[in-house]
């Protein structure tokens, strides 16, 4: 490049040799000084920084982050943390060493979700192959929309989605990876509306009857968000009752649908949950599917949490009937430890409904005169433009462990829940909210001061204050993390979830001991 510029320059020179030489030298000098003739990033310094940063990641986030002798979190009040981190962005840049110190501090004060004593969320743990996939994804930094820009990942996404569909029991269908289960649920609601009223894509909500959505009281709040977001309105959600284990009551679903009809609404969408977020309950899909069929409603199954049980031959019966769903949301980033985010939105339809529903046919991206088969440009199947590659981490992990390896992890999680539930029954002070159906173990810890006082008027009110108090102590100590919440008429209780294969019985015994230690004087 530079040479050819020089030769152009030389050819334009007058014949006089001296002038020519001078001109070349002057040109060289200009080149040396012209910053635009040099890269603006120092490649060597960049590589050195990355080497050291990777070392810090390996040591601080991966090794220490998964070491039981280290803390799960290093709690600081927001004001103190602001001071420690020096978050201010300034006009001049910071030296390399300072930047490495920042990396260390960022990791130090972040919660170690990979730690064997992190039980706070429905995701936890670290899978090395999935992590490698996440790093490759970040490094290659491409978008999933066309074959042109993501040939490997377009092919890979299709294979992974097909595999997930097979586990549901569909031999054909469609799907896409979405940024999270909430969006997968919202996509489902929109596709269902489009399928029922294809013109609404053009005419909007003005041309529609009042649409009604049905979901259980304990379903995920994204159904509310979706109804608000799509212009359906949260008033048009009919909440279906659940039994004492948190499962949708199909007879009440039918009652609610008839009620909606009698009020002049159009019941178009039923959301059933496989693995409710708090109790881990599975709605009875076969009966729910029968009701949907009778009323011509779209059946969406929110299996964001419980979908991974399909990998277990022993436990997949929990989702019996899922093959009758019109669409399914499934988050491998939760139980399977794929890493955030990895959420599949799957459809039974194979007529191109998803594409028709979302396509806008932008000609700058999805040119119709490409030199390859445009069926591989899947990016118009979503409301997104750029879309992150979410399939690689799951593919690498699945390839390395095999379906059987993933099944073992799922079975182990069930076994641990059983172990912990039995252990709690043998200890004074632990009271199960309900027998676990899945891997959510919900329980109250009753401190000695409250034991045997069930009859007291303020018993439940006082018990409701125990979990937040224990939580504060464990966070400040950094010994472990577990979530709590109230649910309906039940006061605050803990929800313990073990998905991390690094966890051992010793960690769970520690968990019980630690709850007792932290709560004994309350
Ligand atoms: C977690 C969860 C969601 C939401 O998934 P995100 O990826 O966090 O948006 C939806 N439904 C259920 C049942 C869930 O447990």
Kindly state the number of beta strands: 12
The N- to C-terminal Cα distance equals: 75 Å
What's the domain count? 3
What is the name of the CATH class of the largest domain? Alpha Beta
What is CATH's topology name of the largest domain?
Aspartate Aminotransferase, domain 2
CATH homologous superfamily assignment of the largest domain: Type I PLP-dependent aspartate aminotransferase-like (Major domain)
Helical amount among residues, as a percent range?
Answer: 40-55%
Largest sheet: 7 strands, mixed
Features:
522 residues; alpha/beta; Aspartate Aminotransferase, domain 2; Aspartate Aminotransferase, domain 1; 3 domains; 7-stranded mixed beta sheet; 12 strands; disordered N terminus; binds pyridoxal-5'-phosphate
Could you characterize the architecture of this molecule?
- Mean pLDDT is 93; it is low at 1-10.
- The protein has three domains: 44-109, no CATH class; 143-388, 3-Layer(aba) Sandwich (Aspartate Aminotransferase, domain 2); 400-519, Alpha-Beta Complex (Aspartate Aminotransferase, domain 1), CATH 3.90.1150.170.
- The protein starts with a helix and ends with a helix.
- The protein is α/β, with parallel strands linked by helices and 522 residues long.
- A hairpin with a 7-residue loop joins β9 and β10 (440-445).
- The chain has helices spanning 2-11, 17-33, 43-63, 78-85, 96-108, 128-140, 151-168, 181-196, 200-203, 222-229, 250-262, 285-295, 353-358, 391-425, 459-463, 466-477, 505-519, and strands at 118-119, 174-178, 211-216, 237-240, 266-273, 298-302, 327-330, 343-347, 430-432, 440-445, 481-487, 490-497.
- α7 runs parallel beside α14.
- Bound molecules: pyridoxal-5'-phosphate (PLP).
């Amino acid at each position: 490049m530079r040479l050819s510029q020089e030769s152009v320059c030389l050819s334009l020179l007058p014949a006089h040799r001296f002038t020519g030489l001078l001109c070349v030298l002057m040109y060289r000098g200009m080149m040396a000084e012209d910053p635009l003739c040099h890269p603006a990033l120092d490649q060597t310094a960049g590589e050195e920084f990355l080497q050291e940063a990777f070392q810090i990641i390996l040591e601080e986030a991966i090794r220490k982050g998964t070491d039981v002798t280290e803390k799960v979190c290093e709690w600081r009040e927001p004001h103190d943390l602001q001071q420690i981190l020096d978050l201010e962005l300034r006009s001049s840049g910071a030296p390399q060493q300072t930047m490495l110190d920042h990396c260390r501090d960022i990791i130090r004060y972040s919660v170690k979700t990979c730690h064997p004593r992190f039980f706070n969320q429905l995701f936890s743990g670290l899978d090395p192959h999935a992590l490698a996939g996440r790093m490759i994804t970040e490094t290659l930094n491409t978008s999933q929309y066309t074959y042109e820009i993501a040939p490997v990942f377009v092919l890979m996404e299709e294979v992974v989605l097909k595999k997930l569909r097979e586990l549901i029991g569909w031999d054909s269908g469609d799907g896409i990876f979405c940024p999270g289960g909430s969006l997968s649920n919202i996509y489902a609601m929109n596709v269902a509306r489009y399928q029922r009223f294809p013109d609404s894509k053009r005419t909007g909500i003005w041309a529609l009857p009042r649409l009604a959505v049905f979901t259980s009281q304990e379903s995920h709040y994204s159904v509310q968000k979706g109804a608000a977001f799509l212009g359906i309105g949260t008033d048009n959600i009919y909440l279906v009752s659940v039994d004492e284990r948190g499962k949708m009551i199909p007879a009440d679903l039918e009652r609610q649908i008839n009620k909606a009809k009698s009020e002049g609404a159009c019941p178009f969408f039923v959301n059933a949950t496989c693995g409710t977020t708090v109790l881990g309950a599975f709605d009875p899909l076969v009966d729910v599917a029968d009701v949907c069929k009778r009323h011509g409603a779209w059946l969406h199954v929110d299996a964001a949490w419980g979908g991974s049980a399909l990998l277990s031959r022993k436990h997949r019966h929990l989702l019996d009937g899922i093959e009758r769903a019109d669409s399914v949301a499934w988050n491998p980033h939760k139980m399977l430890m794929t890493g955030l985010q990895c959420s599949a939105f799957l459809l039974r339809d194979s007529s191109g409904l998803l594409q028709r529903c979302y396509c806008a046919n932008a000609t700058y991206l999805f040119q119709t005169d490409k030199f390859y088969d445009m069926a591989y440009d899947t990016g118009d199947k979503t409301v997104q433009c750029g879309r992150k590659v979410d399939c690689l981490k799951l593919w690498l992990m699945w390839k390395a462990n095999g379906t059987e390896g993933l099944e073992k992890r799922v079975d182990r999680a069930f076994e641990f829940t059983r172990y912990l539930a039995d252990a709690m029954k043998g200890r004074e002070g632990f009271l199960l909210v309900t027998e676990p159906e899945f891997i959510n173990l919900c329980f109250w810890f009753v401190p000695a001061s409250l034991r045997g006082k069930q009859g007291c008027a303020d018993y439940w009110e006082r018990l409701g204050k125990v979990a937040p108090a224990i939580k504060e102590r464990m966070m400040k100590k950094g010994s472990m993390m577990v979530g709590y919440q109230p649910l309906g008429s039940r006061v605050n209780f803990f929800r313990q979830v073990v998905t991390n294969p690094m966890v051992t019985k010793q960690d769970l015994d520690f968990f019980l001991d630690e709850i007792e230690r932290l709560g004994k004087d309350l």
